[in-house]
Amino acid sequence: MKIAIQAIGLIHTDHKAKEEAPIQGTFHPDAMGTVEIFPEYAEGLLDIELFSHLYLLYRFDRAEPGALVRRPFLDDTPRGIFATRHPCRPNGIGITVVRLMERSGNVLKVSGIDVLDGTPLLDIKPYVPRFDCHPEASEGWFAGKERREKPSGRE
Question: CB count, 10 Å around CB of 10?
Answer without folding.
Answer: 16
